Structure formats: C-alpha cells, structure tokens
Amino acid sequence: MPPRHTDAVIPAPEEIVVSSKRVACDGGGVLGHPLVYLEMGEESFVECGYCDRRFVLSAHSHPENEYLDPAARPPEAH
C-alpha cells in the first residue's frame, strides 16, 4: 500500500468581496443551489450554508437598500 500524504492541500472556500452587508447567493454555475439571502449583521463577513462561499465587506460600502447578487455582470462604468 502506498504511503498516505498527510500534507494534502484543501482549497479554501471561495471569497467574494462585496460592497453591502446584504447579499444573495445561488452557488453560481449550472450546479448551484437554491437562492438564499444573507446578512452580515454586526460582522464584516457572512458564509453561505450551502456552498461555503464567504462574502467579505469591502472598504467601499454603500447603502443597504437591496440585496446584491454576486453573479457575473458586465463591468460598471466608473
């Protein structure tokens, strides 16, 4: 039996920087999960219970009047 490698690297969950404490997550891609809405509360991050994505609040936040969807979109004009 070959030796087991105990130093295998396990990839960290995906981290997405967002500008609001309210986000929506669907797991992304074709094999995603049901759409869920997440709020950070007093923290500066929140993790999705389905896919373990971690949403981290950026230094440039904006008013929380809507949930932000982290899905791919065209670039915004600056």
What is the N-to-C order of secondary-structure elements (H for helix, E for strand)?
EEEEE
Q: Determine the strand fraction and express it as a percent band.
A: 15-25%
Would you identify the regions where 5 or more consecutive residues have pLDDT less than 50?
A: none
| Computed CA radius of gyration, to the nearest angstrom | 16 Å
CATH architecture of the domain at 15-57: Sandwich
**Total DSSP E strands:** 5
pLDDT averaged over residues? 77
The CATH topology of the domain at 15-57 is given as HSP40/DNAj peptide-binding domain
Query: Which homologous superfamily in CATH is the superfamily of the domain at 15-57?
Result: q5lls5 like domains
Question: Fraction of residues in helices?
Answer: under 10%
- Biggest sheet, strands in spatial order? 1-5-4
Walk me through the structure.
By secondary structure, the chain is mostly beta strands. The protein has a domain at 15-57: q5lls5 like domains (HSP40/DNAj peptide-binding domain), CATH 2.60.260. It has no helices and 5 strands. The chain has strands spanning 15-18, 22-25, 36-39, 45-47, 54-57. The strands form 2 sheets. A 3-stranded mixed beta sheet has the order 1-5-4, with no helix packed on it. It is globular. The relative contact order is 0.31. The mean pLDDT is 77.
